[in-house]
Amino acid sequence: MDFPVSHQQYNEHDGIRPTEYDENGIPRGGPAYYPGQNMTVPPNADRYEGNFDARTGEPFPHLRRRADGIIGPALMFVNTDLQAATWRGSVLVMAPRGYPPPTVVLNDGTAPSLPFPSVLLDTYKMTVFYRIDIDVLLDVHREKKVEYRVNNTGPTYQFFVPAQTTPWRFCFWSCNGWSLSVSDEDKQKLGGDNVVWDDLLQKHSTMPFHVQVCGGDQLYSDKIWQSDIWKPWLSIKDKLARRDAPFTPEMAAFADDFYFTHYVKCFFMSKFGDSMTTIPISTIIDDHDIWDGIGSYPDYLQNSRVFVQLKEYAFKYWKLYQAHTNQNLARQHGYFGNRGYGWLKNFGPYTAALGPDTRYERSLHQIIEPRTYDMIFERLNGLSPSVRHLVIFLGVPIVYPRLTYIEKTLSGIKSMGLTKLSFIAKQKSLVNIWGEPELSDDMNDHWTSSVHMEERKVFILRLQEFARTRNVRVTFVAGDVHCCGAGRFASANPALPPERDYRFMPQIISSAIMNIPPPNMVIRAVHAGAKTYELDRFTDEKMYRLFELDVNGRSPPNNNTKMLARRNFSSYVEDLENHSMIVNIHVQNENNQGTKAYPVTIAALAPSNNVV
Can you quote a single GO CC term (predicted)? Predict the structure, then answer.
């Protein structure tokens, strides 16, 4: 047997107990089932002991997708080794502590591979995290379907890799969860969790994606603040006293358990979990992966001992579940930053993908530290000469309508001390649990916030110089805002076509795959701010009128043609004939069945690009 069995599961008279199934057809443990196991979810489903046997680490039936006690697998795309023509990836597997280290066997249509061994990343209670590095040699002309099994037992999974000479296909999505304020009724009106997920997986079944880029808010961790454990800290009125109050051992134990369990439930009891068995992920982090607005609060909160230490626990589990790494191995695994965890990958020879970490180093005064920007451009300058597109994935859009009037209103509320008035504090839509204006973190999160405009400008100008000297088209893709749209930076000279304009940098906004869209009044406010703006005297920026018609064939509400408040994801395919990038934003239909595609074509930058 390649999976372990305990004495309760096996005896010399009966052998292995036959697999038992619940009403949903999910194995009740099969070989891992033991007499006396509680077959219902214990009362506290948000704790480890509500999902795993505390003695053995065996997952309870509601978590099982395999007959053994393994949670996963979850595929991740690591990089393309262009010189060796090799696709590199990793598989995350979680197993009870008593199990032997797992292996993965691949079959790319030639012959089964030797088992790929695992590396132990971490352990929580009786559960062990393993990373298994895998690689596939790319054929010259033939795309491959690669089958794989964990421990050479159980289900056979599959993923797809392109050939050396065929286009890469990838998808992007963000905001895979619900805000705490969303009612069950509102969820039902949208068709529940999986309308867009079902469409994405259906499209994958007919034209497989090679990578899914998860654009932030892969789960919503805001629930962590609902625990009573924070009440003594939140009750401290003096800001400096709250800043210096200790992060207690009880807080640490709660944080460890919360993030471990919340990830298990959100990742492995969902369509996202299903997708990770067949579409390798590459993830960037946004605030809700940690908690709402992290990095955009005043210094006394950001630098408080509680915030600083709690953020470390959030990043510990982001690294394990989303990056297949840990603190000691992160740099070895390709993540970089002065303190954060960004990445740069080759989506084949023609497209490079950059995923900056815009959360770990974030403060009210900066998004990314100067040294990290230098590290980004050092790596960009080392890209292969074959690269024609650089796609930069950001949590929050960098081309976006200005919301300065909202910023000024919130600044006025704060400057007048209104947050201290009881009648304001009772209005939960105005003040958050820390006594700060509720929307101020959302405003400060944006690249177009007044506090970040200079940093944004310097970043864009450095990217312009990179595009000019390397003849690489720079494109931004972002999520966060629960609506979709497209915009661009471009030379102020209207006669200059995109093919010759290194300042032309389009942006796709694709959000959310699950969460509720903003109400129409918000879209109206955003649309009102969607004007043409000047970055400098050579560059302007604007949003496109992409949505002349809504998914129902009629004009969108209030003729808001630049931003559409519907759930969505986006797809990207290289056109190797002219090196353009074909983009589609797939927007959920009004009847909650399937999506309508809105196409955008991103032209490559010609070698004879404008040098003025």
Answer: membrane
